[in-house]
Amino acid sequence: MPGHTKLLAAREAKVDGRYKIRFELLNLSSLEVERWADKPSSLSVFYRSQAPAWKARTVSIR
Question: Which end of the chain is more exposed for a tag (fewer CB within 10 A), N or C?
Answer without folding.
Answer: C
